[in-house]
């Protein structure tokens, strides 16, 4: 007679195999449908990690992963080439990828493309360029070394605690949470002796020019080309910080685990100007919250042509696909792959190591106690027999 347990295990094995075969077949079907579409859209881009990069091979990066997912959902093939002048460009100058879109030399452009800071959406529409909904929202942050963060925290804590000494006695009842040594964005702007780097001509620089001009004398402007060498080296070894967008600061902090971030996306206040950047009480904002929307740019001329010939509204298809990717959590997953992968994985591994060690120690101790108990029990049993 067959053992019921064996029958159950065999049934579960067969079911799992069928599930695996079914998922493989479905993946193959999706790939087949994507590869055999007749419509191919040509894309334009430039190399700029983590959006686009290539190591003597096919293009890789966050934007490449996003356009691949969109192509599957919207059912089209695509190809990518680099902008002839090697620039993202701007709508005002009609250079870089925007010039190629306006001239109908490409259907879409991917990369570090902003629709609300370095480009005016209405101007873009007038020259034949339209933008999708955001595939990434970049906010304000500060990049600095861990050692500098500890130093600034200790200095702030000591200075704060000295304020609570009264008549030579420490007043414990007056102790404030402000004395925890946490460094904020306002501290970065006010602490003496810091060199605050900002990339000249960047959206962050434009933000200060437009909304916070009183802080411009506190900033050291550098060109983007020297940041990977001069700028980051100063951050590692000197009293330097970088004020920039999370799209770059998170990437640098993930590549070099010595770097840390100070988030500046919440409520900020300029103590000298007495204005709030983000007023959570709902009062009128004197300075708006910084956020940069990274999008995909499309040629509106080609969109109209394809809609007339094939009935495809590519802007609608792209936006619908992006909505699906966001709702399913796929966009967040792709962002983690390129912005929070290396150092975060190391941190998770280091955090898991002590837990695993404690588990091994616990199991080892348990086995030793069990063996000792078994030995004593056997000895007592043998003694009783004799």
Automatic annotation (TrEMBL):
Keywords: Glycoprotein, Ion channel, Ion transport, Ligand-gated ion channel, Membrane, Receptor, Signal, Transmembrane, Transmembrane helix, Transport. It is a multi-pass membrane protein. SUPFAM superfamilies: Periplasmic binding protein-like II. It comes from the Eukaryota. The keyword Aminoacyl-tRNA synthetase does not apply. Residues 40-341 form the Ionotropic glutamate receptor C-terminal domain. It is found in: Membrane. GO terms for cellular component: membrane. The chain crosses the membrane at residues 362-382. Residues 50-103 form the Ionotropic glutamate receptor L-glutamate and glycine-binding domain. Its main location: membrane. One of its GO terms (molecular function) is ligand-gated monoatomic ion channel activity. Belongs to the glutamate-gated ion channel (TC 1.A.10.1) family. This is Uncharacterized protein. It comes from Blomia tropicalis (Mite). The lineage of its organism: Eukaryota, Metazoa, Ecdysozoa, Arthropoda, Chelicerata.
